[in-house]
């Protein structure tokens, strides 16, 4: 998720200053994504530069709250209305890691898959445990947990597929150049 749009969504609830935004963001995602306060203020500066938010006068505590502008609301509405493309998401590091493991001499691909599956199962158990504890909690957090559970299940299923595919894989025997030339001559001779 874009921090930029996340902060705009939070400011749609009402004006907030940096620390309030950070706390509200982390609460919204159930603590699965912690924000550095520096990220919050850097993002607020960019949002202000782009006229999507504007600062309000400092409060009695010396904090400067921000509020969303009309342009910010339009940008937020556009973001909610636009589906995410798979190409918008970060690279799949696991797929790249397995591809490299397949082509790097001496790497035990089965061990790489098993290590990842163990970590995935452990994460799945933790998310399931959290879901049981949060059954009466807020709906947004439960949906985030469901997403993490489904992603873990999909990753474990894909790892099972990778392992089965690797076990079935039989590379074609390498043909020596002299054998290749002789075979080509035989085919040409048969064609005469």
UniProtKB/TrEMBL annotation:
GO molecular function, one term: DNA binding
Keyword DNA-binding listed: yes
Domain Transcription regulator PadR C-terminal: 91-165
Region (Disordered): 173-192
Domain spans labelled Transcription regulator PadR N-terminal: 7-77
Domain of life according to the entry: Bacteria
Keywords associated with the record: DNA-binding
Basic and acidic residues bias spans: 177-192
Matching SUPFAM superfamilies: Winged helix' DNA-binding domain (SSF46785)
UniProt-listed PANTHER family: NEGATIVE TRANSCRIPTION REGULATOR PADR, TRANSCRIPTIONAL REGULATOR YQJI
Protein name (Swiss-Prot/TrEMBL): DNA-binding PadR family transcriptional regulator
Species for this entry: Catenuloplanes niger
